[in-house]
Write a structure and sequence with these properties.
With about 160 residues, the chain is an alpha+beta fold. About 40% of the residues lie in helices and about 35% in strands. The longest helix has 23 residues, at about 10-30.
Length: about 160
């Protein structure tokens, strides 16, 4: 697997396309089709991704041979890395891609001498929660955030300490 920094419009379109496919498949049973569509437009549209990158969020694509199979995004906040997104296409799950992506982010953490990686995950996303726990993440708290149009994100905050 290659990990490529998102650095042009073509890459941004690849992220947008992956997000649409992965989110609709994975999140529709958890939060419903309408909220997924709203969140994709708000957080993973081409314009939203461009805006995030402009504001310091780093995006990376996972590539196997000629296929993009997933992506990760994160930003340094205080003495931590906020792992905003980590997604792998269903055909490539359980093949170590997420683990390699976390190792990639951990190297960034160590290089910058930061204290932890943290993320948020939907409280009903049991598959992801179990995966994060296997990678050493611990639940820290529960976060409920209004995101607009009457929708909320009901998440756990999980973290992985650098020591």
């Amino acid at each position: 697997m290659q990990i490529l920094k998102v650095s042009n419009v073509r890459h941004i379109r690849e992220v947008e396309s992956l997000a649409s496919k992965i989110w609709r498949e994975h999140y529709t049973p958890i939060i419903g089709e309408k909220q997924v569509a709203f969140m994709l437009k708000k957080f993973q549209s081409k314009n939203a991704i461009k805006r995030q990158i402009k504001n310091g969020v780093e995006y990376y694509l996972f590539k196997v041979s000629t296929h993009y199979v997933g992506y990760v995004s994160f930003i340094v906040e205080n003495r931590s890395i906020f792992l905003s997104k980590i997604y792998v296409s269903s055909l490539y799950r359980k093949k170590g891609f997420a683990k390699r992506a976390i190792l990639f982010v951990k190297k960034r953490l160590q290089k910058k001498r930061l204290q932890q990686i943290y993320l948020t995950v939907n409280i009903n996303n049991h598959l992801a929660i179990n995966s994060y726990e296997k990678l050493g993440f611990k639940k820290q708290s529960r976060l409920v955030q209004k995101i607009g149009h009457g929708y909320i994100m009901d998440d756990y905050k999980m973290s992985l300490k650098s020591y």
